[in-house]
Amino acid sequence: MRKVLLGAAIAAVICPTLATAGEDGKWYINPAVGYMVFDNTRDLDPEAAALLGAERKFNKDWGMELRAFYSDAEHYRGNPNLDQEVLGASVDVLRYFSSASKVTPYLAGGIGEVHSNPATGGYGDQTQLNAGGGFRYALDDAWSVRTDARYIYGTDNETADGILSVGLSYAFGGTSAPAPAPAPVVGDSDGDGVEDGVDQCPGTPAGVAVDARGCALDQDGDGVPNYRDKCPNTPAGRQVDKFGCKYVLKQTETIRLEINFAHDSDAIPPAYAGELKKVADFMNKYDSTATVVEGHADSTGAAAYNKQLSQRRADAVRNALIRDYGIAASRISAVGYGEERPIADNKTAAGRLSNRRVIAVVPVEVVE
């Protein structure tokens, strides 16, 4: 087996070079069963074979395998004294041709050594070259079916053998290439990845997953988006409350927060500190409550800028409740509506001041 060991040493030298082409680093264990056909000079009938390989896939195109096979072949005239146990091993290079399907074809070739007992008519140790190919069919990330066909040439006695095999392979290790970052979307005011002209739900809170229409995902279809749904997986058709939970007749108590802002500012005026504390005390008393902080702007300036400004105002109030009063971040979300929902005439200074606001209603339902 000296040549096999030499081949393994060569593999160790060239592995780092192959790996730089885009390392995958995955290992495969390749057990298989096969059918082996022998050269006429061996006087052996075709026979079943067992194979076992350990393969290292360096990247999507290249791999290397140390493979062993065994066959207990019978003499073609039925003389048991001339039966042969054929045991071989080789080091093979595999060239893969990756595709988008589950089927990956490859070519293979290598060098090895085979042994058969000279006392029963075998050739002893013999150097062999092999060439062939096959394909791998992926069942999932770990398991695959591999078929393989090789022509095996014995250099010492000019023999020509062949082996066809099929096996179930197991993969482990390796690294996955990071997914490419999505290209930025032009004209996307709320930053949800859907252009404004297509977005049917503008003003989606930052970081909320949306569908192709730009609307927040609603996994259980109860009309409450996932980011506000406190009871996911509600059975279809069940009446739910605003938090996506089963509706129960309750008495509702609420507290309202309203803060007005200076022109083009997201700084909370100091005069509203009492408003913040009042809401925080209420939420601490009823620790199951949650709220959506809504930011608004007047119509001065561009609509896209006003949308961003209103979001900053809503975020400022949310952050103050979290930072200064210890309200859990999971209980407060913030959304900016820009100039879309005025409550007063934007033609007057007083009306614009009324429209530059952040509001939040905190409901609590007490069972009657």
From TrEMBL:
Membrane spanning residue stretches: none
Domain OmpA-like: 248-366
Coiled-coil segments: none
Keywords assigned: Membrane, Signal
Protein name: OmpA family protein
Signal peptide: 1-21
Annotated PROSITE patterns: OMPA_2 (PS51123)
Pfam families cross-referenced by the UniProt entry: OMP_b-brl, OmpA, TSP_3
